[in-house]
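On to my pick:
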Amino acid sequence: MPAGRTAELEAREMLRCAALMAGDYNGLANLLTDDLVHIHLTGQVDTKEGYLSGFRDKYRFRNIERGPLRIRFFGNTAVMTGRLTQIIDVRDTEQVLDVTAMTTQVWNHDGTRWQLNTCHNAPLA
């Protein structure tokens, strides 16, 4: 496994987590492909627009932790799997969600940068 590519991709995921926690809409948007498919723990499927709308209007991320991450490369595509824990505030109800999930992400490299193309979350007991 190419160590440099792995480190670069791990850094992109850390940037994504940091953007979520900082409320950085533009930073997050830059990390996502235009044809993003995001599958939430509930099974709801979002496009990039829907995912960013929920991020902006519905949720506030207090904490995100990842790892360990397993990354497999297939040309300019990488599949990242690993544990995800999050503490999220639901803005309109003030409900606090404590999330533990296994997450699969597909990242694409466009020749310049890695962007998240697909994310699927499955809850862990």
In short: The radius of gyration is 14 Å. The longest strand covers residues 59-74. The mean pLDDT is 95. The chain has three helices and six strands.
